[in-house]
TrEMBL record:
Protein name: Amidase
Gene3D superfamilies reported for this sequence: Amidase signature (AS) domain
Domain Amidase intervals: 21-366
SUPFAM superfamilies: Amidase signature (AS) enzymes
Entry superkingdom: Bacteria
Family recorded in the similarity comment: Belongs to the amidase family.
Organism listed in the record: Paraburkholderia podalyriae
Lineage: Bacteria, Pseudomonadati, Pseudomonadota, Betaproteobacteria, Burkholderiales
């Protein structure tokens, strides 16, 4: 049950002290097949060039240690993969690691690497980060290059990093995004106004979020996002349609996992009317979030409303779609969103605190996360 599909040592220099990073297997590395952890793509041709984010990491002196495992075709929330294996959840090996960037989150949580890259189409960085007790960032849509990343065409997907500390996450972002301003990501946030989004979440999760926000010592305002649930449903319609277009042809191969084949068959039924309705919701929800961010500087809410379920429950058919109820909407709107692990009272597990920022102010999101991280460390 490895976090890696394959390991190697790739760097532009021979520096043994270079920070290490794993790359999700939906991102091209020259000389290796991009299989998306699927038997149906096991014979894919070797990538002829690095994805742009991979080349930027190498140019910045990072050492790539391997391709990270994932939920097959990046189309699932559990991280369970019966073809390539299911990565361990470092917080609790009985629980799912989350998907689809399961191997990336697991590798960071197990301290096998300093950082990892994943992709987030419907919460696939933030969900595994919350499950595995690490940090995960979905940048503003379109801000980080997706050249050399599958699927090639998307209106939702973003490449984003996993780390254990905010300082390392800022280093990754500085490498993969030439516009990222590290100084702004370390700015003083003492005058920041936090909007606390009203959502339904389990009591222990809600309390963990409240405690973390309280320790930040910043001004807060309660925010209602009336179309949050509609945005979740609309996000499902869009991801179904776009994943069906990208990978629907693989159903005929007979080589897909049963869960993926069933999802792709269902996704093919997404109609033009469904997509039209989803696009109307996208516009309305984006406007609503933008208006909320005119009143405050950032929004906070839980990453997931509950703790990750067990592998046994997931294999028995327990629905996990609700795992993405609070994260998927922000793929639809395109705002930057980060999941920060925060302690749960009387538990060894951590909850995910989700921070949402204005578009293209990913640095503000990081600055608040670093501030809360420091405050939590002081009170530990």
């Amino acid at each position: 049950m490895s976090a890696f599909l394959r390991t190697f040592n790739l760097s532009a220099t021979d520096g043994a002290d270079a920070p290490t990073i794993a790359i999700k297997d939906s991102i091209d590395i020259a000389g290796y097949a991009t299989t998306a952890a699927s038997r149906a793509l096991a014979d894919a041709p070797l990538a002829s060039e690095h994805a742009e984010v991979v080349q930027r990491l190498l140019d910045a002196g990072w050492r790539i240690t391997g391709k990270a495992n994932m939920h097959e075709l990046a189309f699932g929330m559990t991280g369970i993969n019966d073809f390539s294996g299911t990565p361990l959840n470092p917080q609790d090996t009985a629980r799912i690691p989350g998907g689809s960037s399961s191997g990336s989150a697991s590798a960071v949580g197990q301290k096998l690497v300093d950082a990892a890259l994943g992709t987030d189409t419907g919460g696939s960085v933030r969900g595994p980060a919350a499950c595995c007790g690490v940090i995960g960032l979905k940048p503003t849509f379109g801000r980080v290059s997706r050249h050399g990343v599958a699927p090639r065409v998307t209106t939702l997907d973003c490449v984003g990093p996993f780390t254990r500390e905010m300082g390392m996450l800022i280093r990754v972002m500085t490498a993969i995004d030439p516009s990222f301003r590290a100084d702004a990501a370390r700015r003083d946030v003492s005058r920041l106004r936090i909007g606390v989004v009203s959502v339904d979440a389990d009591e222990d999760i809600a309390k963990a979020i409240d405690n973390a926000v309280g320790k930040a010592g910043l001004a807060t305002l309660t925010i209602e996002l009336a179309s949050l649930k509609d945005a979740f449903t609309a996000g499902l319609a869009v991801i179904n349609a776009e994943t069906s277009r990208a990978f629907g042809h693989l159903v005929a191969s007979g080589k897909l996992g049963a869960d993926i084949e069933a999802r792709l068959r269902a996704a093919a039924a997404t109609s033009a009317a469904d997509l039209d309705a989803a696009e109307r919701v996208r516009r309305a929800f984006t406007d609503e979030v933008d208006r909320a961010l005119d009143r405050v500087d950032v929004l906070v809410l839980p990453t997931m409303p509950s703790l990750p379920i067990t592998l046994e429950a997931a294999r028995a058919g327990t629905s996990v779609i609700g795992m993405s109820s609070l994260i998927r909407p922000f793929n639809l709107s395109g705002h930057p969103a980060l999941s920060l692990p925060v302690p749960i009272e009387h538990s060894t597990l951590k909850a995910g605190l989700q921070i949402i920022g204005r578009k293209h102010d990913d640095e503000m999101v990081c600055a608040l996360a670093a501030h809360i991280e420091a405050r939590l460390a002081q009170s530990a």
